[in-house]
Amino acid sequence: MIQHILNYLGIGAAAASGAVLGVRKGFDLFGIAAMAVVTGVGGGVLRDVLLAIDPPQSLQRWQDITVCLAAAALATLFARTVIRLHQPVTMLDAVGMGFFATSGAALAVDHGAGWFAAALLGMVSALAGTIIRDVVARDVPVVMGPDDMYAVPAMLGSVIYVVIDYYGPQWVGVAVGSLVATLLRLAAITFHWRLPTGPRELIMRAHPPHPGP
């Protein structure tokens, strides 16, 4: 029961972030709904395709799509409020990311993937929806930009799951991996932890500042 709640919470938070971005970009209602769906279930669909699950589980469960559309509807109706509530939405997104990382790895293990593939597929589950969202919106994907760490917590959560699952119960791996990934993401947001970037002079040369008026 708790696993289903976390799953829907994660899908809803991810879908809401996609819908809010669609609102900010001026998309029509179909575009906003599409952004919500690809963000909410995109990672799961890609994971299932790589695992040769046909059709993908996220497309077979009508509940997942319904949660995405409900999140899109609420985000559209209350767009001004949702945009102001940036911190709570970010926290929900962190919870969803942590759960997607471990549940994706768990599904991969259940379908016979090795430990290395399972860890990678867990990370894919957590990141792919966000990457698709940003690419569709023509933004630099947040997981690849110089913002607070996103990919590292997802990778760590999936690795922790794989290690614990090898020695103990699966639910312990899901719980611990999700918790660690979520807390690390929240800590990165709070303390602005970031990975090193390339040499600053090369970045400035590639993206020179715009001259003033």
From TrEMBL:
<keyword id="KW-1133">Transmembrane helix</keyword>
<dbReference type="Pfam" id="PF03458">
    <property type="entry name" value="Gly_transporter"/>
</dbReference>
<feature type="domain" description="Glycine transporter">
    <location>
        <begin position="5"/>
        <end position="79"/>
    </location>
</feature>
<keyword id="KW-0472">Membrane</keyword>
<keyword id="KW-1003">Cell membrane</keyword>
<feature type="transmembrane region" description="Helical">
    <location>
        <begin position="62"/>
        <end position="79"/>
    </location>
</feature>
<dbReference type="GO" id="GO:0005886">
    <property type="term" value="C:plasma membrane"/>
</dbReference>
<feature type="transmembrane region" description="Helical">
    <location>
        <begin position="174"/>
        <end position="195"/>
    </location>
</feature>
<comment type="similarity">
    <text>Belongs to the UPF0126 family.</text>
</comment>
<feature type="transmembrane region" description="Helical">
    <location>
        <begin position="6"/>
        <end position="23"/>
    </location>
</feature>
<feature type="transmembrane region" description="Helical">
    <location>
        <begin position="91"/>
        <end position="109"/>
    </location>
</feature>
<dbReference type="InterPro" id="IPR005115">
    <property type="entry name" value="Gly_transporter"/>
</dbReference>
<feature type="domain" description="Glycine transporter">
    <location>
        <begin position="91"/>
        <end position="164"/>
    </location>
</feature>
<keyword id="KW-0812">Transmembrane</keyword>
<feature type="transmembrane region" description="Helical">
    <location>
        <begin position="115"/>
        <end position="136"/>
    </location>
</feature>
<feature type="transmembrane region" description="Helical">
    <location>
        <begin position="30"/>
        <end position="50"/>
    </location>
</feature>
<protein>
    <recommendedName>
        <fullName>Glycine transporter domain-containing protein</fullName>
    </recommendedName>
</protein>
<feature type="transmembrane region" description="Helical">
    <location>
        <begin position="148"/>
        <end position="168"/>
    </location>
</feature>
